[in-house]
Amino acid sequence: MTKNININFLEEIYSQIKEDSLFGKWITLPHIKPLIENLNTTIFQIEPLGKSEENRDIYKLKIGKGEKRILIWSQMHGNESTGTKALFDFFNFLDQFKEHQITKTILDNCSIVIIPMLNPDGALAYTRVNAKKIDLNRDAVDIQACESKLLRTTLDNFNPHFCFNLHDQRTIFGVEGTKNPATISFLAPSEEITREITTGRKETMNVIVAMNNLLQEIIPNHVGRYSDEFYPTATGDNFQKLGHNTILIEAGHFTNDYVREEARKFNFYALIQGILHIACTNDFSDHTEYFSIPNNNKIFFDVIHRNKNKNDVAFQYEDKIIDNQFTSMLNKHKEGDLDGYIGHHEIDCDH
User: Fold this and answer.
1) Which of 125-153 are b and which e, b meaning 16 or more Cβ less than 10 Å from the residue's Cβ?
2) Which residues pair with 175 in a beta bridge?
3) Which end of the chain lies in a sparser environment, N or C, as judged by fewer CB atoms within 10 Å?
4) Coil, strand or helix: which one is 306?
5) 340 with 296: CB under 8 angstroms?
6) In angstroms, rounded to a whole number, what is the distance separating the alpha carbons of residues 79 and 254?
């Protein structure tokens, strides 16, 4: 297993490489377009990949010259932007630390294609789906959406060994066996309904183990394992089945981190560790520690009002764009005896 990147080094340099122009949860094409256009062209090859359903630009970036091919995409769900922020932190690292051994190792051993925002229409509307109400992460078989076609064409032409599929998960998820939120969760997707542990899944698990090992140094017991239930139309499941090892990273909640800025940092740490591990590794068979990562469980609400007589009330935030402003509103979700649940914030209504 690849040696972990020095966590103190990452902590020391993170404020320097963090892309401060990207903040919060509502990240749209106008936020990232000038950043893409200003990337260092000695490192990044920038290409227009195509257009969204509403004719917005979708970009493809290429870096590296190595034999190990990696495909990364973010915001196939428009309202899941933490991975996008982490990608631009990664871009800044490569530029600002171009002479560092980590950068040299990655660029010498890997060829990486990155789609930083696959669903710009959904990003603007802050929706999971695209402009035609298609969930791109459930469109891997029918391939109806133009964005899905662009991703699949990129996959077929580039033929990656590994893929990183970057998502956000809801604040409801915790780490089984703890009282901690699942700040980062991983998944090596199943290839069919029996969830057989194939060679490809073992290789995917191997990379996840490397990422988890690093995160346990800084957020111990805040990393979960997403359900590997097989979804016949899902992107990760189908790409895995096609022989492209697909690593799902789900950024989740960290204490008081509703803007996902801490989760973004840990997402960056996981991403750079995973890519470096691929760059340095030839034998990806060691995978059993993957099953030591606790499962996700659904034990959290955003706010719980605790009342005597077990008449508790739980609330969840709902994010919406109203009058061109990002807005979060608390909605009541559950009432009754909520002893088995945890609130990110709890209010004792009897005192």
Assistant:
1) bbbbbbbeebbbbbbbeebebbbbebbbe
2) 296
3) C
4) strand
5) no
6) 18
Q: Which residues of 322-348 are buried (b: 16+ CB within 10 A; e: fewer)?
A: eeeeeeeeeeeeeeeebeebebbebee
* Residue that is written with structure tokens 């009541």 in the block: 332
Residues 297-347: tens digit of each pLDDT:
999 999 999 998 889 999 999 999 999 999 999 999 999 999 999 999 999
pLDDT tens by residue, 17-70? 999 999 999 999 999 999 999 999 999 999 999 999 999 999 999 999 999 999
Residue 110: closest CA among 207, 22, 195, 14: 207
Q: Give me Rg for the CA atoms of the chain.
A: 20
**Is-above-0.90 flag for pTM?**
yes
DSSP state of 28: -
The number of helices, as runs of H, and strands, as runs of E, in the chain is: 9, 14
3-state secondary structure of 52: coil
Structurally, at CATH architecture level, domain 7-298 sits in: 3-Layer(aba) Sandwich (3.40)
SS3 259: coil
- Check: CB of residue 87 under 8 Å from CB of residue 35: no
